[in-house]
Write a structure and sequence with these properties.
mainly beta; 16-stranded parallel beta sheet; nine-stranded parallel beta sheet
Amino acid sequence: MIRYARRPKVYPDRMRLRRPLLLLATLLLVPACGGGGGGGSSADPAAYPATPTGGSGGTAGGGFLSPLTPLNTSSPNHTINTSQSADLVTAALQAALTAGGIIVFNNAGPVTITLTAELSLPAFQTAIIDGNNSVTLSGGNTRRILQKGYLSLLTVQRLRFIDARTPSSGAAINVENWDGALTVIDCDFENCKTTSAGPDIGGGAIRATGQTHLQISACTFLDCWGGNGGAVVSLGCQLTIIDSTFDTCLAFGTGGGADQGPSGQGGIGGAVYIDGVSQNAASPQFRLSGSVFRNNQANDHAGAVFGYTIDGTGSSTTVDACTFSGNVVSGINANVASSGAFYTQNGNTTFTDS
């Protein structure tokens, strides 16, 4: 059992952010003229009428968003006994996910669980996992931590994810099929990494496809790597990121997106990679509020955030009260070679107080 002291959250200085917006060379606004590393998804999404879990927070339009409130888990369906062996804890977690419902842990203090198998939320299931700020799930530098199935609803909150590994996508949390919703509240991700380059794959911490809404609130991402999207890859989802910090994440692929031909093996979006927000979204929006991006790196373009939206879909991007600092594009042979902080293509994009 390994105990740890929880790291404090890092929040932007609100007063310092309230100044005129300076874009300079860190921002590239690209008109609707083709690739740049995007490409869309070939999946055929089905309608999913359920309301995403996790609350809404903030205002209905643009502007600053309040962090999401963790869901009430005071009446759990499953309580995991963390004093057991790692094998038994892993098996108990999997049984709880298979059954669905609210999952909590019985430990009195901080505990790290090094999983002995990858966890899976089955298709059509609904689950909430609450670590109560005292549980760390580790992949042991050998495996993915959690796979989310088709048409499932998942909320993870007050958990820490470390040392996750997988070849292609989503080392900590991966959505294996289209549809459903994913909400992540007050979680930390550290040293979560994918190991293969290529177009549209990556997401060292999270990769989500076709979610009606992917919500990330009050989270930290530290030293996460992916072929694209060192921390997060989102394809075809409405995406909201609130009050989160992305630090020292890396998009290690090379050559750009699939539009660059066979040499396009990624390296896009040092922290976050977005390809489409309309295909299966409750609303075609990417909203980024009160978040910090520092010292992230991409080998081809978009040192911090890459956002490709599909022309003619009414898609929008709003960025409010965010800080971008020390993000770089560093590939010697980068094909696109632009946008140290933020790349956005198609749709309407608004920056305020950043």
